[in-house]
């Protein structure tokens, strides 16, 4: 069991950002409206994720750290159809196998909750405590008992970069959830969670940049497009400036990026990319997760049609004139 957890940890917990991802996804699954993330030393020293979601019932806390206890068997294809982000029931046991975990949680409004501590897979504490409804996970000394893995960690700046990139994307994907991120006590992100995507863009890219974004909204028989693109003078040197969310999930898509570049065609200097934050909604059967969910790659069953629609919509609404 312990060995299985260590092996699973090798896949689930690659670096501090993987821990943040699993904990934040659990918070979203729990219906949280506010999620506060605080990390120290790139997350290697400490990762804390606090949410105001449903909480975990006291008698279920220990079970939540057992492998596949909550696993709901689903296929890759289903991933885009379901609302819940968790699906394997592997995250908590994997994280607990390679770090020191404390969780304080309450599913009640009575102020009664549970504190559970597990270190290197060993249960240390399971006790009643006072707690507000919601959950606080604190992960200390990630990989403390797997020195070989610890050696693979990059600089604090690199690990922090993975964490902040991930949280920026989640804030963009979920404008109705308020996110905060702190590193060594310094605030790196704060969104209010009022549903306004442009305010999230302002929180991440700055107010000045947000003012230069053009709203895009378009409908098609199969697809819906909603988001913002930067005016041509607001270009970036990196194609990561284009963030796509398909049915709420961050994805990378070469064909969609190309469609945007064609829409801008003569407007962009060479090797410059527009800033873009775009939600694409479609029936789940029209999109397929390619290979592995964490790769963020997708395949669209009617790609040519989608690409044409995206190019047309952005071109029309950017220039205010048809192609
Ligand atoms: P999965 O998300 O795949 O079900 P996890 O190991 O990530 O598996 O989590 C195990 C279970 O613990 C979840 O299914 C959920 O019931 C519970 N849980 C974890 N984090 C939270 C949270 N922040 N709020 C409420 N419940 C949680
Ligand atoms: Mg999970």
Automatic annotation (TrEMBL):
Coiled-coil annotation reads none
- Domain DNA mismatch repair protein S5, residue spans: 201-319
Instruction: Write out the similarity annotation.
Output: Belongs to the DNA mismatch repair MutL/HexB family.
Functional summary from the UniProt entry: This protein is involved in the repair of mismatches in DNA. It is required for dam-dependent methyl-directed DNA mismatch repair. May act as a 'molecular matchmaker', a protein that promotes the formation of a stable complex between two or more DNA-binding proteins in an ATP-dependent manner without itself being part of a final effector complex.
Write the protein's name.
DNA mismatch repair protein MutL
**Source species:** Paenibacillus arenosi
Q: What is the lineage of its organism?
A: Bacteria, Bacillati, Bacillota, Bacilli, Bacillales
């Amino acid at each position: 069991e312990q060995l299985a957890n260590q092996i699973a940890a090798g896949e689930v917990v690659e670096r501090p950002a993987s821990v943040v991802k699993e904990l934040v996804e659990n918070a979203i699954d729990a219906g949280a409206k506010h999620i506060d993330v605080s990390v120290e030393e790139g997350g290697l020293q400490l990762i804390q994720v606090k949410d105001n979601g449903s909480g975990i019932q006291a008698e279920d806390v220990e079970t939540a750290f057992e492998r596949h206890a909550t696993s709901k068997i689903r296929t890759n294809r289903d991933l885009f159809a379901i609302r819940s982000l968790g699906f394997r029931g592997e995250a908590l046991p994997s994280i607990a196998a390679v770090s020191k975990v404390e969780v304080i949680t309450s599913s009640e409004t009575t102020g009664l909750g549970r504190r559970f501590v597990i270190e290197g897979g060993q249960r240390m504490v399971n006790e009643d405590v006072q707690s507000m409804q919601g959950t606080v996970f604190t992960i200390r000394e990630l990989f403390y008992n797997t020195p070989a893995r610890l050696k693979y960690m990059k600089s604090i700046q690199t690990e922090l970069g993975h964490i902040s990139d991930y949280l920026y994307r989640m804030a963009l994907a979920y404008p109705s959830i308020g996110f905060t991120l702190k590193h060594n006590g310094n605030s790196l992100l704060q969104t209010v969670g009022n549903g306004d995507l442009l305010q999230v863009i302002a929180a991440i890219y700055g107010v000045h940049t947000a003012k230069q974004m053009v709203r895009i909204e378009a409908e098609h028989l199969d697809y819906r497009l909603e988001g913002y693109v930067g005016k041509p003078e607001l270009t970036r040197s990196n194609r990561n400036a284009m963030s796509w969310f398909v049915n709420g999930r961050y994805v990378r898509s070469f064909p969609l990026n190309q469609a945007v570049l064609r829409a801008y065609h003569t407007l962009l200097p060479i090797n410059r990319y527009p800033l873009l934050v775009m939600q694409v909604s479609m029936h789940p059967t029209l999109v397929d997760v390619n290979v592995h969910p964490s790769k963020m790659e997708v395949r669209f069953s009617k790609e040519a049609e989608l690409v044409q629609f995206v190019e047309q919509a952005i071109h029309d609404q950017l220039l205010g004139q048809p192609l």
